[in-house]
Give the backbone structure.
Amino acid sequence: MDDFYREYILDHYKNPRNYGTLENPDISYEEDNPVCGDRVRIDIKLEDDRIADIRFQGEGCAISQASASILTEMVKGKSLEEVRQLSKEDLLEQLGISLGPVRIKCALLSLKVLKAGVYGIRGWPGEEDHA
Ligand code: FES
């Protein structure tokens, strides 16, 4: 089981989905993990408050980049209200492996960027993580 998930994450790391940037995005936000400097940027194109298109770019560890790729697949086509309701548990569950506290920060970097970009809530959900 674990091997399947490791492969799933490695696949997203090596072949990231929705990778790149958008021209004239409605939302564009970037942040790094203050502990290691790894970075994720997310661009979003909205249509009727739905995520019509989404791209991410970043640099960093496999978990942070794979989780960004997985997250873009999870939210494409979703409404902003559905994004608001997305929890860190939802993303961690989708990643499918149990992670220690350091790796959880890696996994949640993309969600933090997404939520902050959509709502301008800086520091969510990892505000307790600042070094
Ligand atoms: Fe930096 Fe994972 S080590 S986000």
Observations:
- The helical segments are 2-14, 62-75, 80-85, 88-95, 101-119.
